[in-house]
Amino acid sequence: MKYEQGSSFAQKMDEADPLKAFRVRFDMPADKNGGKALYFCGNSLGAKPKNLSPALKEHLDIWAQRGVYGYQEWLPIYTRATKGLAALSGAKETEVVAMSTLSANLHHMMISFYNPTPERYKILYESNAFPSDSYVIASQIDMTGKKLTHFTGKKQSAFTRENAMIELRPRKGEATLRTEDIEKTIDEQGDSIALILIGGNNFYTGQTFDMERITKKGHEKGCVVGFDLAHSIGNVELKLHDWGVDFACWCSYKYLNSGPGAVAAIFIHERHHNNRDLPRLMGWWANRPETRFEMRQEIDAYTTAEAWQFSNVPVLTFLPLLASLDIFMEAGMKNILEKSRKLTGYMEFLLDSLETDKFKIITPRDPARRGAQLSIVVQENGKQVFDALAAAGVIGDWRNPDCIRLTPAPLYNSYEDVYKCVEIFAGALSSIKGGESAH
Ligand SMILES: *Cc1c(COP(=O)(O)O)cnc(C)c1O
User: Fold this and answer.
1) Which ligand 1 atom sits nearest the alpha carbon of residue 230?
2) In which residue ranges of the chain is pLDDT below 50?
């Protein structure tokens, strides 16, 4: 793609954009002055789909008017997400189910897929993982280690977070991980690794990991391989089934635009569905619907990923997911990815042409190794630059100590948004002097 300077190029691109009609399907947040913001925060909370409000009203009315009879609509409602989730994650429909929230599902998956033995008890993860993921991993290790200790009556924990968590760190002077380094770690330490659990995309740098190669290498060494796809779902191409990934989890309020705390989802590869040796937490929603209300003492479980469900579906946080998936299916992931590459590439082009060393893009330059996000490390007074962006109506995301993350979301951001955003960024950079104290 060849980009050009000037706002007329942005306008030309917007006119030719096959997805241009989708922008008005979202409510765009206001800036501080009451105008429309330039919204570049879709990696944190996606914009609200307009088709959600009538759906919510419909189901509140069903509740109001029909009470418990509303379950005729609500019992099967979760199946309406299956097709879209399978399409976006590259799964079979039997391998995905929307349920619960991301951190809870990570724990849930680790109950099934972290099965330490004396020789193989470690977990490989990213050094700069999203904090919730490191807390989940550390607490799972502690819990499992302690339970084993109590059981055997030993004084010392079988293993602890100190000896069971292995971090993947970028090389000195580099911001992102090299696939060959990840493979090398797996080669060298794989025999003691029970589980590899990393993001599909790193939340901070935006790096897309080579999930296919990591899964292959992990399996060669006998490790279970799972991914947290919080920043990948709806953002990059996924082929979880074909890659042979064991399990994955994601939330749906980032690129999937399903609103704060919306219902999350899990993927479990079909080869695990009937493995009775896997420990599994169960609730009544793991029971097949045909016999669920016979209220049997013994569970009659699904033979799909649905067997990992616990509870009846949280309908009101489910509706936003359905509204959003409808939009994704209508727009088509192929079109979304194509525009995404161009839009982020355009932002990168404009930033590069500012030709200054006041900032550095740490997101991978290769479009195949990133989605809709650029992480910009500002060398000096980054927070002031960020505050100036916010004051001018750009909603982005700040990460201490020096990083601004901007997300050009292909469903609702335009080329003109990107053009204006970079123009404001350039103004902020030049108005804030380098060398001053940031305090
Ligand atoms: C956003 C995000 C979370 C958030 O977890 P919740 O349980 O939804 O609050 C966890 N992990 C990663 C990698 C994330 O990006």
Assistant:
1) 15
2) 435-439
* Helices 179-189/211-220 angle, 10° precision: 10
pLDDT value, residue 176: 97
Strands (E), 127-192: 165-168
Instruction: Output the CATH code of domain 7-50+332-433.
Output: 3.90.1150.10
Q: Give ligand 1 pocket residues (Cβ under 6 A).
A: 101-103, 130, 132-133, 199, 203, 228, 230-231, 251
Task: Provide the terminal-to-terminal Cα distance of the chain, rounded to the nearest Å.
Answer: 41
Q: Are 234 and 264 spatial neighbours (Cβ–Cβ below 8 Å)? A: no
Predicted confidence at residue 323, as pLDDT, reads 96
What single letter denotes the amino acid at residue 314? P
- For residue 179, what are the contacts with CB-CB under 8 A and spacing of at least 6? 209, 210, 213, 214
Cβ atoms within 10 Å, residue 395: 22
Task: Tell me the C-alpha distance between 218 and 38, whole Å.
Answer: 41
How far is ligand 1, taken at its centre, from the CA of residue 63, in Å? 31
If you average pLDDT over every residue of the chain, what do you get?
Answer: 95
CA distances to 173, 284, 385, 394, 424 from 433, in Å: 25, 61, 10, 20, 15
Q: Using CA atoms in the order 138, 215, 114, 231, what is the torsion angle rounded to 10 degrees?
A: 50
Domain ranges of the chain: 7-50+332-433, 75-329
Q: Which residue has the tokens 């799964």?
A: 91
Rounded-to-integer distance, Cα 387 and Cα 29, Å:
17
The pair of structure tokens assigned to 332 is: 């088509």
Name the residue with the closest Cα to ligand 1, atom 10. Answer: 132
pLDDT at 218: 98
The count of residues in the chain is 439
Q: Which CATH class is domain 75-329?
A: alpha beta
Residue 434, pLDDT score: 56
Give the number of other CB atoms < 10 A from CB of residue 45. Answer: 18
Helix (H, G, I), strand (E, B) or coil at 181: helix
Distance 89 CA to ligand 1 centre (A): 17
